[in-house]
Request: fold
Amino acid sequence: MKTQRTDDPIKAARWLRLGDCVAFPTETVYGLGADAMNADAIAKIFEAKGRPDDNPLIVHLHSIDQIDRVARDLSPAAWALFEAFSPGPLTCVVHKRDAVPDVTTAGLDTVGVRIPSLPVAQDFLSACAVPVAAPSANRSGRPSPTTWEAVRHDLDGRIRGILIGPQSPRGIESTVIDTTTQPPVMLRPGAISFEEAQRVVPALQLADTVEQKQRSPGTRHRHYAPHAAVEIVDAEAAAPDRDAGYLGLNRPKRPGTWGRVVLCRDLSDYASRLYATLRQFDREGFTRIVCEPVEPVGLGRALMDRLTRAAGHVSGETSNDAAAEEGEAPS
Reply:
């Protein structure tokens, strides 16, 4: 299969409505979309990504008006969060309707729902006119793609098409909140911080067990890992290495003796550049990637979550090294 590319959301939506997989940009990362109500189309996502079938997908909608097509019995907390943060980088786990295929939700009786805000994503989802299930548009286990070129690198020849758009401005996945529990629980930190969400739903809690976290898409297996070994080390303690890349907020010791040093302006810039930089360091052939830790508060909580996953330090996950190693070497 030759993967086609277009900058026309209507053309890309036509491919999806024919039962194919289409990668599309959002404000967080690029997603790999298929008709959420078409089990055969959803199966193509898992095949293209090499994604384990026990990993649920997020359903993307054009507007709040579409929620009742896939969800039922939304709690007051769910409505409050949707009204506060949608369109935007928020995913609410809600009770699913029976019409949503089990393959979309990995057999769970709940479904994650999100309404992206990026204009091209809005245009695409509007043209699709069906709920669109979409994980990140990368080979399973690899860093999420924030550019269409990264999608092409991972999935060229494996999917029908790519909708070309801008680099994803947020650069880190959506926040996932389970609104079917009392109190609601943040399952995955993301572009909306716990503190921001808690101002809307004061009873909100953080997931504190593996079982809770695994109700979220993107938490059951190792994720976000480049080919190079990722280490999380303070700038002062980082050992210079010509075969290593460094990413962080503060300048490391002897920056001229590193293979490459990438410094970020602030936490938002760090999050926005994380995945693209991990992929860049892989392309440049570094064997080590050293990332500076940040305080796990606000956006820093999501950033540290992604860094520890990239380094393979998250407890309770299933290893997905085989899937990560299936991808071609970076070019």
